[in-house]
């Protein structure tokens, strides 16, 4: 079994593609016809396939890139070197790098990105609850496999300021964008329910009943609508709600690959690494 086949099967067990949203583009997006000349079996995890991440992948003899955001999303009418993203895809194909994207499958699955986000908000030694924000996704065996978004219900309400502190600590951020319910006009007011969606969650969160909406980004009018409805808003930056999950994904992927018995098939040098060049495209100055 090739390293690409092994990664695809392992990722399918971690985040089954059937859990992805219908509008999404997930799975094996680019299968290179070539093999890396360096002879390494290295898998690089990233949120985005940027030009700097591509350079890193080439320098580290990467065979497979698992890019959370699909670098091919809608139909391409051409592939040219003049387009930076298309140029990256062409270089991957030529250099023997294949690309896999899990995106919303990894959001929905239990134990995925949205659960990781939710777990950072929980109180210690409390019976807080993480549940589905939208209807659960039931598998063919009748077992729940995941859901869209998450709703955290704290056993005891906490001040908004404390929730903001927990979010900063969990995501390792120094700044957030916060909108406060105009009916209370205070960050010391208590909150108990938090609706969560990784990335850009405005459309999923809209109309959901919760004290707080937590996501990466929302449009101006989505924020206004939430505040008018009496809901607090915490915006963290799109990829800041996703990137911290990559080390956990790396651990899961290593475990799955080892479980396939790859080491016994002559590929003992398989490595799963997290990109050091992948970062949020904007910075606060």
Automatic annotation (TrEMBL):
For this UniProt entry, the molecular function terms from Gene Ontology, in alphabetical order, are:
metal ion binding
Binding residue positions for a divalent metal cation = 69, 107, 238, 242
The terms describing its cellular component in GO are: mitochondrion
Q: Which UniProt keywords apply?
A: Metal-binding
| InterPro entries with a match to the protein in the record | DUF34/NIF3, DUF34/NIF3_sf
Note one Pfam family from the annotation. Answer: DUF34_NIF3
Alphabetized NCBIfam families for the sequence? YbgI_SA1388
The entry sums up its family as follows: Belongs to the GTP cyclohydrolase I type 2/NIF3 family.
Q: Which PANTHER family match?
A: NGG1 INTERACTING FACTOR 3, NIF3-LIKE PROTEIN 1
This chain's protein is named NGG1p interacting factor 3
Organism of derivation: Laccaria amethystina LaAM-08-1
